[in-house]
Design a protein that fits this description.
By secondary structure, this protein is of the alpha/beta class. It contains 12 helices and 28 strands. The protein has an 8-stranded parallel barrel. Strands 2, 4, 5, 8, 9 and 10 form a 6-stranded mixed β-sheet that branches. Strands 21-22-23-28-25-26 form a 6-stranded antiparallel β-sheet, with helices on one face. Strand 19, helix 11 and strand 20 form a beta-alpha-beta unit.
Length: 600
Amino acid sequence: MRPARKDPPPAIQIRDVEPQVDCGRHPVKRVVGEEVVVSATVFRDGHDVLGAAVRYRAPGARRWREAPLEPLGNDRWRGSFTVDAPGRWTFSVAAWTDRIASWQREVTRKLEGGQTDLDGELSEGRAFLGADASLEEALAAKSDDRHGQVELDVRLGVDVDVERAHFGAWYELFPRSWGGFAGVEKVLPRLAELGFDVVYLPPIHPIGHTNRKGRNNSLERSPDDPGSPWAIGAEEGGHTAIHPDLGTLADFERLVARARDAGIEIALDYAIQCSPDHPWLKEHPEWFHRRPDGTLKYAENPPKKYQDIYNVNFGSEDWRGLWEALRDVMLHWVSHGVRVFRVDNPHTKPVPFWEWLIGEVRRVEPNLVLLSEAFTRPAMMTTLAKVGFSQSYTYFTWKNTKAELVELMAQILEWREYYRPNFFANTPDILHEYLQVGGRPAFEARLVLAATLSPSYGIYSGYERCENVPVQAGSEEYLDSEKYEAKKRKLDGPLLPLVQRLNEIRRTEPALQRVDNLRWLDTEQEQLVAYVKDDVVVVVNVDPFAAHDGLAIVPAALGLQPTFFARDLLGGERYRWSIGRNFVRLDPGQAHIFKLETHV
């Protein structure tokens, strides 16, 4: 059977385009101001000269722009474009045959080979360039010929975020322990001085009374127990209301504005769950799971039980109404100045919901940043990142040995085109045994690791004071957990100078603002963890009980001079180092952050 088309299929092949995720199903991630480096294999039969370009379009733009792709050899091409606005960018690759350049190369090779009878070739050149062209003019002519141009049959995407989606230091606090919004506002200047970029508040909404938890997650409570902020909803309202003890909506707006003036974003918790007293239970009973006997089932994550909350039913017949209500909750807080959200347990909700919600909200607020609290299987963690979450918690809190850290970072680097980590050193739910038994040295080691391995990291208040007492042996819950009672917090603690210095270093050293430049260094000592990021070397003693000496073995592949200086950005000391083996000794939990300097 003869082909139906009039013209033959295009001869040019465009293959193996990078970057892309899942054959173009999902976008890669970048931040505003970054360069998107595009490479592709471009070829065709024969020996014609080809040209290629990356075509790209900004969010909402109609006009396509182009940047050239340059040949690297062996049919591989590379070029780039810079993204200068948040939102979904689109790009493709175009390629064509340059007939003039092909003719010029053919004639030049024949001349170099000693051929002089080129009348036929000259007639071809005149057909391209005009009847009056001489051989010399034809060979020197610049070409803009794009004959038979073809384009990649898939439009690829780049999800461009603001810098805070990629880099930042987070501090988590319960506002009820700081005197409400007014108390948090008072501490903002000090938090800014310490170098924090985001202050994350757990839910600020009214708390239910039915099945309210008492101290230490007890089912028995006293009248004064405030309950868990995640038991959202009471007579004052639900997800768009504010707990009256914290302040008013005007107070909250003032807090957001004052924080932004100080260079800090206020992040809110977005938790899709309701206390038994939430208005939705009466207004929309169809949005909740019911047993055959009509009773509601409270939330569980065995062995944990959450008798004070109910989950919504994403399989409800009115799922559209539920989705829209949940969208309107986030848009409500966006309308009051919030651009950053920490999303509670997104892996227990349908992926299509998140893809839709994020698209809806980003159309209103392109600067949206969403932190995923997804401690789950890799497939779900990565898919949430692909559908639009800006960054994600990781299993960093449970990775404390050199081997565990190497394994974790290998996975994160494999996902680097679409998954951004946020290394929280602790959370209200996670007090790892390493911190419980290791004392201050353990807290110092983990702080340095979190702040230097990941561009985004965070601590939950109390970390700076080395709070490390569990509710019981074998538990990762804090004794007298702040989830169930209010504290009287103030910003103090022995680790604050280290926090401030680390945040200063992170802001001044671009190498620490990336994750894809990580390279491990051999130490010949399991308790010493060493790695290099461009011109910064970090060495940490992960043993909180004993000092260790070992090596930082610098490979020649780093391109350094045979000898150079390593200046410790923490302590200020300066050492002469060389390619190869360099002696290091560190006390329990201590670290060096070396700036490599080639000048005297």
